[in-house]
Amino acid sequence: MIFSLILGFLLLIIGIYGMLTQKNLIKIVIGFSIVDTGTHIIIVSIGYLRGKTAPIIDSSVDIKNAVNAVVDPIPSALVLTAIVIGLAVTALMLSFIIKLYQKNRSLSVDDYQELKW
Amino acid sequence: MIKRIFILLALLGLVLMFLPFLKDFDFHQELGDLSSQYVEGSINDLNSQNVVTSVIVTYRGLDTLGEVTVLFLATAGVGFLLRKKKTSLRSRRSSELLQTGSQFLFVLIILTGVYIFTHGHLTPGGGFQGGVLITTAFLLLILADINLKFNHSILLFVESFSGVFYVIIGLFGILLIGMNSFLDPAILPLGNFGKLLSAGAIPLIYSIIGLKVGSELTTIIDKMGGE
Asked: How large is the ipTM?
């Protein structure tokens, strides 16, 4: 579907805009999550084939003609693992934020200038 | 002000980059060569109903091993950052209703998670989804009682055992079938198409992935719950 593709790109751009403009570290992580979701939607909609069903060969799919009845399984497989990895990476970023807040008592990215050039 | 203009320019450049892709994108009408081979191979060679599962566990099995390693690294990072001993938070005890309800639901959610990852080759679902579902059961227990302590040695044992066992099953493929057969599910009998005990080692490998994902994410929420 072209609409889901556009929605994915829209989410991607909204997420990048959020990551670039926000000062709060947690809001930056939220922007990252939105980019993550946008990429997943883009990948899944690339694998979509009009009028075909999920790649599970049960009684609703003719087993002799299965190749012409299912959508692309590879993007689904890629997204499936990417979702769980995204969850773990978000948890890792949040624990960095917890540690930074405990040390400096601030969530604003302006207060962390050690790596600024 | 100048910064905002630069940000808008960067986003505009991004939109211009994506626009040709969107404009010239033509949706395929049928599967590509590789995907067709995967679908046919899943039916004829692997006896697995769920093609996504056979792609994840067999055709891209090495990738999945890498993904599990990334998950392990992220968990290790969380554990390293939040390693402080859990201090008991002074909190009001949650109500009897919440505690009993969470303990009642805990068993059912674990059971659903185990069902999902053992039936990964038959129905939608599999190790990753089942593992996350198992984690939500533990999250429910933490929400009901914030000072709950998990048995870390059991968590650690399940996590390392499933990681090692995953690689050992992969090595059995090399040992029993041939040099190019790392993670080949044909080391076990392939069974009948559509039955629970079919598709060779795929249910076994996916159950191990489920246990690994479940234990690692449980470790993460346990560490983060203490903060």
From this structure: 0.82
